[in-house]
Write a structure and sequence with these properties.
The complex is a heterodimer of chains A (153) and B (233). By secondary structure, chain A is mainly alpha-helical. Chain A has one domain. Chain A has 8 helices and no strands. The longest helix of chain A is centred in the last third of the chain and has 16 residues. In chain A, 41% of the residues are buried. Chain B has 2 domains: 31 residues; 153 residues, Nitrile Hydratase, Chain A, CATH 3.90.330.10. In chain B, the strands form 2 sheets. A two-stranded parallel sheet of chain B has the order 1-4. Chain B has a two-stranded parallel sheet with strand order 2-3. In chain B, helix 3 crosses helix 4, helix 4 packs across helix 5 and helix 8 crosses helix 9. Chain B starts with 20 loop residues before the first helix and ends in a 25-residue tail after the last helix. The chains are: A mainly alpha (153), B alpha/beta (233). Chains A and B meet through helix 1, helix 2, helix 3, helix 4 and helix 5 of A and helix 1 and helix 2 of B.
Chain lengths: 153, 233
């Protein structure tokens, strides 16, 4: 059985991810956002995970959904250099391995000082923005709306 | 009887009365994804409910049952899908609606007094979630993934698991098709215990192989997360 040659494409991917320019909105959140461990300590809450963690997990899953083994096999073909990423028919918005490896790379670079799972969230959104799946300005506007909604009486 | 607002209950647990930017970000990006048709709200809800209810109990119960029942132990080692069904998890359809990465096989790795197994996913963070829940943070890190295969004995020692030199350590690498759980040796001091009692000491860490079960130990270790000196790939 042929060995999976991950060297070149994955190195490229990691290098590309490492060289990604910071996203202004995410940098602001990184600098100013209150992380769960601090908030939980301040309020005396013992739950180790923030309330949005399972929703984040659900989002990661559903973005790669319906592609299970078959798409993982195609992804491996891409990683082995047998096919172009752009030629993957039926690729989900954010395939599992791409998301995980970009999260790895971003967790070691841009978001290395952010704790988990906040880091996981920033990496996911970073990947979505860099793919053009979500626009930074739309996200900033929607965050403002969300804050207003949640603060309403 | 006069009305008592406390109804005899304990005082309410403390809550975080504050919305962080991270919480707002998670909501905002999810709403935009749904509006753009990247996924539906219904599908997201299903996956989130799946994430809410999974945990290590099914895998722990498998090990506890196997310790008590030789026939079930044989089933674990020869037909783990049937063994999973016996604790209420259908691995071929764990959610009823499919998942991207859990449509897979699980193998139970039996430890002996001279052989210890430990599990990793060097590729990403494959894990038998339907029976073991979500991965701990350290399991996902390149640091653990890269170093465990090179220095298993030393990495296990970092978890507080120092094994004698005559115990062979075998590292199993998970993948999209096959996940693993470790079946440790039943510890001394558990004679006469019930399945429920035994299940409590088979922690997540024991099932990954970075800890051994022992009476009185029902929680996992806090393992520091280190940055990898080099990328994993």
């Amino acid at each position: 059985m042929a060995e999976l040659n991950t060297a070149a494409p994955v190195d490229d991917l990691v290098a590309e991810a490492a060289n990604w320019t910071p996203v202004s909105l995410l940098e602001q959140i990184k600098e100013n956002g209150r992380v769960w461990t601090d908030m939980a300590a301040d309020y005396g809450v013992t739950n180790p995970d923030p309330p949005w963690k399972t929703s984040l997990d659900g989002m990661c899953e559903v973005l790669a959904a319906g592609t299970c083994s078959s798409m993982a096999a195609v992804e491996k073909g891409w990683l082995a250099g047998d096919t172009e990423r752009s030629n993957l028919e039926g690729a989900p918005p954010l395939p599992l391995l791409e998301r995980r490896w970009e999260e790895d790379a971003l967790s070691e670079t841009l978001y290395q000082d952010v704790p988990y799972p906040e880091r996981q969230l920033l990496a996911l959104v970073h990947s979505l923005i860099k793919r053009g799946l979500v626009k930074e300005e739309d996200l900033a506007a929607r965050m403002k709306q969300v804050h207003e909604r949640l603060a309403a009486d | 009887m006069s009305h008592d607002h406390h109804h005899g209950h304990n005082p309410p647990a403390p809550m975080v009365d504050e919305v962080s930017d991270f919480e707002a970000l998670e909501i905002a990006v999810r709403e935009l994804c749904i509006e753009k048709g990247l996924f539906t709200a219904d599908d997201h809800r299903k996956f989130t409910e799946f994430a809410e209810h999974i945990g290590p109990t099914p895998a722990a119960r498998m090990v506890a049952k196997a310790w008590l029942d030789p026939a079930y132990k044989k089933l674990c080692l020869t037909d783990s899908l049937a063994a999973c069904k016996a604790v209420g998890v259908d691995l071929l359809n764990p959610t009823g609606f499919g998942t991207p990465s859990d449509y897979t096989d699980v193998r139970v790795l039996e430890d002996t007094p001279t052989l210890h197994h430990v599990v990793v996913c060097t590729l990403c963070s494959c894990y038998p979630r339907p029976i073991l829940g979500f991965q701990p943070e350290w399991y996902r890190t390149p640091n653990y993934r890269r170093r465990l295969v090179r220095w298993p004995r030393q990495v296990l020692a970092e978890f507080g698991l120092v094994l004698p030199s005559d115990v062979e350590i075998r590292v199993e690498d998970s993948n999209q098709k096959c996940r693993f759980i470790v079946m440790p040796v039943r510890p001394a001091g558990t004679e006469g215990w019930t399945e429920d009692q035994l299940t409590e000491i088979v922690t997540r860490d024991c099932l990954i192989g970075v800890a051994l079960p022992k009476p009185g130990m029902t929680s996992n270790v806090k393992f520091p997360v280190h940055k990898a000196a080099k990328p994993a790939h």
